[in-house]
Specification:
Helix content: 25-40%
Number of helices: 11
Number of strands: 15
Radius of gyration: 33 Å
Strand order of the largest sheet: 8-7-6-5-14-15
CATH topology of the largest domain: Purple Acid Phosphatase, chain A, domain 2
Structural class: alpha/beta
CATH class of the largest domain: Alpha Beta
CATH architecture of the largest domain: 4-Layer Sandwich
Distance between the termini: 82 Å
CATH superfamily of the largest domain: Metallo-dependent phosphatases
Number of domains: 3
């Protein structure tokens, strides 16, 4: 009767006595202890997930299970993930701690109990330059006709720093694109467009940065399409109003791989554009006789330290320059400083505030984009858009 889930009180009522008397009598019987032992074994062998936690910041899952086995088994990593209810196609095991021991029930049947703890992390596919190149084999290059009768002796620098596509979409940058194009159509001898890091917000479909830090949820497909439309529109306009258009890529700390792949694709689409898609954290562009140096701003921030790196890497360009400018981003707010023959501009960002900025109160900086115009002698204007 106890096995039918009746309470001792209910059993006592059947026999017309107190439930405690029935329980005391039963505990003295040999059959009672055999039943209780079988119940303990059955409970211990039940399949159950004891605990599973998912760290949304980095995508890591920690899982503990007990698993009833009829015989000893050896599991592959993928099989172990499936036992824990974690998809093996999108996760891989980082660490494993497992114990296994035998148990025998009252009938002499032997079972094995597997106690397993795993830490699983998102599986990241290896992306090689060869794989990236294969994606663009059938891209049809575009040819854009120059629409200027006379080319002005001016140079336009467009640093696209910290756009964070995915945190922002096409509707967020419609007006900004129109303002940039308004500056382009005046005509320029050269136009340099620089993707100065963090052009995209995340580096994969798991919504994490390069280092695996999970950030804001992103519609990656939509972000890619919107960013592509933005850049294609911008480059078409630039090629109509300048005979020399340059595009440079710099790695940032959010999405260096996605930014690189994106730049590589644009390179296939516009053979008229001089594209620098080398993976280097410090770069140089000539605009006339002006040297423009670039760094995202995440590895070096202090101006004099940046100058040391630049002079070391670009000694010839430094010596031959009429003037020298350094553009960094990363911190999303504007400041400038002249030091050792170089003017350093830390440019603002047009992006919405990231989750990190909101959580830490970094939301007071003015949003916007800075464009720089030069003539043959000097920097002649900064446009705040």
């Amino acid at each position: 009767m106890k096995q039918s889930d009746k309470t001792w009180f209910e059993i006592g009522e059947v026999f017309g006595t107190d439930g405690e008397n029935v329980r005391a009598w039963a505990k003295k019987q040999e059959w009672f202890h055999k039943i209780r032992e079988e119940e303990k074994i059955t409970d211990a062998l039940k399949d159950k997930v004891k605990e599973q936690t998912h760290d949304r910041q980095n995508g890591i899952i920690t899982s503990n299970i007990n698993k009833k086995l009829k015989e000893q088994q050896t599991f592959t990593d993928d099989e172990l993930l499936e036992l824990h209810g974690i998809p093996a196609d999108t996760f891989q095991i980082r660490t494993i701690t497992s114990n296994e021991w035998g148990m025998t029930n009252a009938e002499g049947e032997q079972f094995y109990n597997l106690q397993s703890k795993i830490v699983a992390e998102p599986r990241v596919k290896e992306i090689t330059p060869e794989f990236i190149a294969s994606l663009f084999e059938n891209v049809k290059p575009q040819e854009i006709e120059l629409q200027l009768d006379e080319v002005p002796d001016t140079y336009l620098l467009i640093p696209l720093s910290d756009f964070h596509w995915g945190l922002n979409y096409a509707h967020d940058y419609v007006d900004l694109l129109a303002e940039i194009k308004d500056r382009i159509i005046a005509g320029h001898s050269e136009i340099a467009i620089v993707l100065n890091g963090d052009f995209f917000h995340v580096d994969n479909m798991l919504n994490t940065t390069e280092r695996g830090t999970r950030v804001d949820d992103v519609d990656v497909e939509r972000a890619t399409q919107d960013a592509h439309s933005f850049i294609v529109d911008l480059l078409k306009c630039a090629l109509k109003y300048s005979p020399n258009v340059k595009l440079s890529y710099l790695p940032g700390n959010h999405a260096p791989m996605v930014d690189y792949m994106f730049t590589f694709g644009i390179k296939q689409l516009f053979p008229q554009v001089e594209v620098d898609d080398t993976v280097d954290h410090f770069k140089h562009v000539w605009l006339g006789e002006h040297s423009i140096f670039f760094h995202h701003g995440d590895r070096r921030r202090v101006t004099n330290k940046l100058v040391e790196v630049i002079v070391s890497k670009f000694a010839r360009e430094w010596g031959e320059s009429k003037s020298r400018y350094l553009i960094t981003g990363h911190l999303h707010f504007e400041k400038s400083l002249s030091n050792s023959g170089l003017t350093h501009y830390q440019v603002s960002s047009p992006s919405k505030s990231t989750g990190y900025e909101r959580d830490n109160g970094f939301v007071s900086s003015e949003k916007g984009l800075m464009l720089f115009e030069f003539d043959d002698i000097k920097r002649r204007a900064i446009y705040y858009l």
